[in-house]
Specification:
Elements lengths: L2 H6 L6 H12 L8 H4 L4 H4 L16 H15 L18 H15 L2 H24 L7 H21 L2 H20 L11 H6 L4 H16 L1 E3 L10 E3 L1 H19 L18 H4 L4 H9 L23 H27 L5 H8 L1 H6 L7 H11 L1 H6 L2 H15 L2 H7 L5 H14 L3 H18 L9 H20 L21 E2 L6 H4 L27 H9 L3 E3 L2 E3 L3 H18 L4 H14 L10 H14 L1
Parallel strand pairs: 3-4
Antiparallel strand pairs: 1-2, 4-5
Helix pairs in contact: 5-6, 6-7, 6-8, 7-8, 7-9, 8-9, 8-12, 9-12, 11-14, 12-15, 15-18, 15-20, 20-23, 20-24, 21-22, 21-24, 23-24, 23-26, 24-27, 24-28, 27-28, 28-29
């Protein structure tokens, strides 16, 4: 991109580029139902319901607005899915379908009424463009860089559907989701076993200069795919990062599995990823410097990441590997939830089995394919404890969210929030009342509180991804409904959180916890007859974690931000409103919708078990059902 272009627009998005985007939209092939039949969101959501004009009637915003939208994308969305190389990116030379998706995501983040209306009207034809390109992969022998670009475009279209939270928009993108994951699987993107064993080939190279150059080419392939420009230029016009695209596909599969309450399309046992090697090692500019770093301990071979990866004790995972492993474990959790749900549903007449449904780890423990998920997840807090404290915000949130949903079946909480209407909400709340008396519940509440703490304490520069927003919503449900269903405290409990007979002190849920010492406590059967109880390390009485373990085991008084909370409506309402306010501050993804749900819940928790003929209550429940799928 020339200096002249950068003076007019940092990204090169000028009137000529705007005209190219307008032309790409005008030439979209119309197929399937008409816009008035399927493309409009609800009238209340965007103001442009069934009477939308044709594609030819859509006029793009001025180039200045599109340039701002592109900035919104690159500043706020790109850090969550870094699939392009910003220093070499030029909007003018970027593929039009890719740029269209980037601009729509940016306009969605911008969030003005005009931007929202434009996105609502433009999303269907842009989705059609991306889907047509994706379907061409099955009939055309595209070069690898074009294959990855098409997949990246489809991935952005999927993310645009999910981050806005519009039910109709997500429904339109469901076909894209299924075809995209199928295409990526057929191309072998999720298996590092496809192809030559590069480690063995590198070991055979004796000459250091040749070995360094060969290794660099391999690492380049992991990090970037260079796209040749249509015009002669000395440098590529933009670069895609294939590993981040693959991680983005896995994250998208997790999101859709959660939204649709189905199994992920990707089979977890088939996933094998080879992350990039050491960043410093990659950026040295000579073979001798490269060799020097290797002699000082840098590794030229990165460990293959699988959903059953056991980190070596003491090994500190880099941020990318840590997040990748967490995402793969979440993929396994969603697969196990769906596979085991149908089997457990047949036994719900048995009260003990119903209890197991409320605490998913209990069902996992009896399943050969799932029983190692819990120790793998907890092991990350011991082998990579530094990573939890210093990793990027979203990875830390993901770890807590994964632990939380092992102890709390989120389907019950979504039902209690009104996903399927008033009557299932009342029934789910009764089940949650029983769950709230268990160690699993108290362990899950601790993780939920730490999700709140991480997002509340985030820095201005921290970018919150859509998955963390969903985690905060689930954390709010766990915290709020746990507090709501708690029985009242004993009458002799003092305000300082201890009772007159020397009861347990009040525990602050937001205090730091040494999860390495807590281990699997709360997710294990602690009865004397359980043979594997001893696998959990019990902190000493003087340990700072002793109070945490005591709370998990027996319960007791607790506080949030120093305020001691008792069970019941008032404390639950306070908690839900705090979470809702935090969501509104994050405000770019689906957080506005989730915040509205929490506000509604804070107002009508006292109505559970009341008269089902309340029309306003039915309408509110319906809104929540639409928002959560």
């Amino acid at each position: 991109m020339s200096e002249r272009e950068r003076r007019n627009s940092r990204w090169g998005l000028d009137e000529e580029c705007r005209s190219m985007l307008q032309g790409a939209l005008n030439n979209v092939p119309l197929s399937g139902p008409t816009r008035s039949e399927s493309y409009g969101d609800t009238a209340s959501s965007s103001g442009d319901a069934a009477g939308s004009p044709s594609v030819d009637g859509i006029r793009f915003p001025p180039a200045e607005i599109l340039d701002i939208a592109l900035e919104m994308y690159l500043y706020y969305f790109h850090p969550t899915l870094p699939i392009i190389h910003i220093p070499t990116f030029s909007a003018k030379n970027a593929p039009r379908p890719l740029l269209l998706c980037m601009c729509l995501i940016g306009l969605s983040i911008l969030g003005t009424a005009g931007a929202a209306k434009f996105v609502s009207r433009t999303f269907p034809p842009v989705l059609q463009i991306a889907l047509t390109e994706l379907q061409s992969l099955s009939s055309t022998n595209h070069p690898p860089h074009r294959q990855m670009r098409i997949i990246a475009t489809s991935l952005l279209a999927l993310n645009l559907a999910s981050i806005t939270g519009r039910k109709s928009r997500i429904a339109q993108a469901e076909k894209m989701y299924s075809e995209l994951i199928a295409v990526a699987s057929n191309l072998g993107l999720f298996s590092a076993n496809e192809g030559a064993k590069v480690d063995a080939l590198l070991d055979e190279v004796v000459d250091i200069e040749a070995k360094w150059k060969a290794w660099s080419k391999i690492e380049c392939t992991k990090r970037y795919i260079h796209h040749p420009s249509s015009r002669p230029k000395p440098a590529p016009t933009h670069i895609l990062t294939p590993l981040r695209i693959i991680f983005g596909l896995i994250e998208a599969d997790c999101w859709w599995a959660g939204y649709l309450s189905t199994s992920p399309m990707i089979r977890p046992e088939t996933v094998q990823l080879l992350p990039p090697s050491d960043y410093t090692l990659y950026h040295v500019n000579s073979a001798q410097k490269w060799l020097h770093l290797i002699q000082r301990g840098s590794r030229i071979h990165s460990a293959k990441i699988t959903p059953s990866f056991h980190p070596t004790p003491g090994l500190k995972l880099d941020a990318s590997s840590f997040r990748s492993l967490l995402t793969l474990l979440l993929l396994r959790i969603y697969e196990s939830n769906d596979r085991l749900a149908s089997a457990s549903a047949a036994a719900t007449m048995n009260n003990s089995h119903s209890q197991k449904q409320l605490e998913p780890w209990r069902i996992y423990a009896e399943d050969a394919r799932s029983r190692d998920i819990l120790p793998l997840l907890v092991n990350l807090s011991s082998s990579s404890i530094d990573a939890l404290r210093t990793a990027d915000l979203n990875s830390a949130v993901l770890w807590h969210a994964s632990c939380m949903i092992l102890g709390a079946n989120m389907r019950y909480f979504e039902l209690a929030a009104g996903r399927s209407g008033p009557e299932p909400a009342v029934n789910a709340l009764e089940d949650i009342s029983a769950w709230s008396q268990t160690p699993s519940a108290r362990r899950s509440v601790l993780h939920a509180a730490h999700i709140f703490k991480l997002l509340f304490d985030r820095k201005v520069s921290d970018i919150v991804n859509p998955h963390s927003v969903v985690a905060l919503f689930h954390a709010a449900l766990v915290l709020g409904l746990y507090i709501f269903t708690l029985p009242p405290p004993p009458p002799n409990t003092n305000m300082n959180g201890t009772n007159g007979m020397g009861g347990d002190p009040c525990i602050e849920l937001l205090d730091l916890v040494d999860w390495q010492l807590v281990g699997q406590f709360g997710f294990l059967d602690t009865s004397p007859s359980c043979p594997h109880t001893s696998t959990t390390t019990t902190p000493s009485p003087t340990s700072s974690s002793a109070a945490v373990v005591r709370f998990i085991r027996t319960g007791g008084p607790f506080s949030i931000t120093g305020i001691t909370l008792e069970g019941g409506y008032l404390a639950a309402r306070r908690t839900l409103l705090h979470c809702a306010d935090l969501m509104e501050g994050m405000g770019r993804w689906k957080s506005r919708t989730f915040s509205q749900i929490l506000h509604i819940m804070s107002d009508d928790l006292t109505d559970y078990g009341g008269d089902d003929d309340d029309e306003d209550g039915d309408e509110e429940m319906g809104c929540r059902g639409m928002a959560m799928g």
